[in-house]
Amino acid sequence: MTVCEFIKDKVLRANREYIEHSPEHFDFWEQHIRLVVREALDLADEYGADREIVELGALLHDMALIARVGTRQDHHTNGAIIADRLLTEYGYPDDRKAWVLGCVLHHRSSQYTENIEELCVADADIISHFENIPMCFSTAFKYQRVATASIDEWIRYFEKEWNDLSERTKLRFQPRYSLIMDVLFGAFTDDYRK
């Protein structure tokens, strides 16, 4: 079993337990992780990053949320602890493990990334939010407390996500982002930017 298969199996097991025992029965794998993995690997290919490191970082980036360890605010640090334990269990080399842990620690914004692998995971995480709009709205409402009746707050929320992308990925993602914003907010987006 490869390290990626081993980690994917651990993530899927934790995901099944989360679905079964959490009040909302959210499916992290289907609604988020698989989207992040797919997008991260696309970015890794385009940017010349180490695919294995990127795939492991993408698989593990939200492991603390899935395992219900700590809070949403500190899931990146708790996720790195869990990732370290799982990769050690597999026998993954320490030097490569450090790269994966960096991907988990710095996945919340490309502004904090230290290498191309971290950037791929961080940008993929953000792009996945745009690929699953219902999840994005749910997260914004539930955790960010964005008011349901405020178009301005919603536009600012989506623009904050956009601004967390690296400049390189913004160029790549711009056509999709513009289309999403136009579909969601249409004329409101134009009014807001005047």
How is the topology of this model organized?
Layout: H1 3-21, H2 28-47, H3 51-60, H4 63-66, H5 75-90, H6 94-105, H7 116-131, H8 133-142, H9 151-163, H10 167-185, H11 187-193
Helix pairs in contact: 1-3, 2-3, 2-7, 3-6, 3-7, 5-6, 6-7, 9-10
Profile the largest sheet.
none
**Secondary structural class:** mainly alpha
CATH class: Mainly Alpha
- Rg on CA atoms, Å: 17 Å
Number of separate strands: 0
Classify the beta-strand content into a percent band.
Answer: under 5%
CATH level-3 fold name = Hypothetical protein af1432
Q: Which regions have little confidence, pLDDT < 50, spanning 5+ residues?
A: none
Which whole number gives the mean pLDDT?
A: 88
What is the molecular shape? globular
Within CATH, the superfamily carries the name: Hypothetical protein af1432
Would you kindly provide a brief summary of this structure?
By secondary structure, the chain is an all-alpha fold. It is 75% helix and 0% strand.
Provide structural commentary.
By secondary structure, the protein is an all-alpha fold. The protein has a single domain (3-193), classed as Hypothetical protein af1432 (Orthogonal Bundle). 75% of the residues lie in helices and 0% in strands. It is built from eleven helices and no strands. Helix 3 packs across helix 6 (94-105) and helix 3 crosses helix 7. The model has no long low-confidence stretch (mean pLDDT 88).
Labels describing this entry:
194 residues; Hypothetical protein af1432; 0% strand; globular
